[in-house]
Structure formats: C-alpha cells, structure tokens
Amino acid sequence: MHDAAQTPFIDPDSDYPCCWFCPALRFPRVGFLVADRPSRHWPFDASDGFRYTVADRVPVCVHPGRVGLEPERKAPPPADEPPPADEPPTDFEPAPRHRRWWRRE
User: Fold this and answer.
1) How many CB atoms lie within 10 A of CB 47?
2) Which residue, among 43, 34, 30, 44, has the nearest Cα to 67 in the 3D structure?
3) pLDDT one digit per residue (tens) for the chain, 105 residues
4) How far apart are CA 16 and CA 57, in angstroms?
5) What integer pLDDT is reported at residue 24 of this predicted model?
6) Which of 6, 31, 60, 102 falls between 20 and 30 A from 80, CA-CA?
7) Alpha-carbon distance 28 to 25, whole Å?
8) Phi/psi at 94 (nearest 5 deg)?
9) What is the rounded CA–CA span in Å between residue 9 and residue 18?
10) Is the dihedral of CA 33, 39, 42, 45 positive or negative?
11) Tally of CA atoms within 13 A in the half-sphere of 104 that contains its CB
12) How far apart are CA 37 and CA 71, in angstroms?
C-alpha cells in the first residue's frame, strides 16, 4: 500500500505571486476553495493564520488572480456599500454649490 501525499496546487519553490500562507501552497486543488475577496463567511483564524469557511472549516484562498483560478464563492456586498455607478440614486438632490461672489484684486 502506497500512502503518498498529494502535491500542492502551486509549487512553493516557483515564482508564482501567491501569499506565503495561501492554501494553494499546502493543498492540492481539491483541498481548498477560491473566493473573490475576504468575507465574514470565511474569516481569518488567528490561531494558525489561515482563512476557513465557517460551516466546515475548508481552507479558502481570497486572491484568485494570484493563483490563476476563477473564484468559486462570491462574498456578499457589504450592507453600507453605495449602489453601483450605473444606477442613479433614487432620492438624489445635488449639493448646493458654494461660489465666491467677490473678486480678488
């Protein structure tokens, strides 16, 4: 019986721009998830320095561009995030402009 460990997704000796604590350096591709950004749904664990999903503690990478993968999980937008720029606000009133009515000489 041969119990060889699977190789990590990214070789630690390569010049790949991933973080030194990225799960891609520790696990094969099936061993971690890729998220679009940090979120409270996959918080940072200060005890070991990695991010995990809350429900089942699966390691999460939050820099998909650095590991060359598409994100599998999307973080919900923050509640206080303004609406996207292409949608005008519904109750928008332009702020009054302050003008100088005197002239400098």
Assistant:
1) 5
2) 34
3) 444 567 778 777 777 777 878 888 888 889 999 999 999 999 999 898 889 999 899 999 998 888 888 998 888 876 665 656 665 555 555 565 655 555 565
4) 25
5) 87
6) 60
7) 8
8) -65, 145
9) 11
10) positive
11) 1
12) 9
Q: What is the pTM of this model?
A: 0.62
Token code pair at residue 89: 């606000």
- Confirm if 90 and 83 have CB atoms less than 8 A apart: no
In the DSSP assignment, the letter for residue 14 is S
Q: What is the pLDDT of residue 1?
A: 45
Q: What pLDDT score was predicted for residue 89?
A: 56
Cα separation of 40 and 43, whole Å?
Answer: 5
Q: What is the pLDDT of residues 15-26, one digit of tens each?
A: 777 787 888 888
Residue 29, both tokens: 């591709």
Contacts of 42 (CB under 8 A, 6+ apart): 33, 35, 51, 52, 53, 54, 60, 62, 73
Alpha helix positions (H), 1-105: 64-67
Beta bridge partners of 34: 61
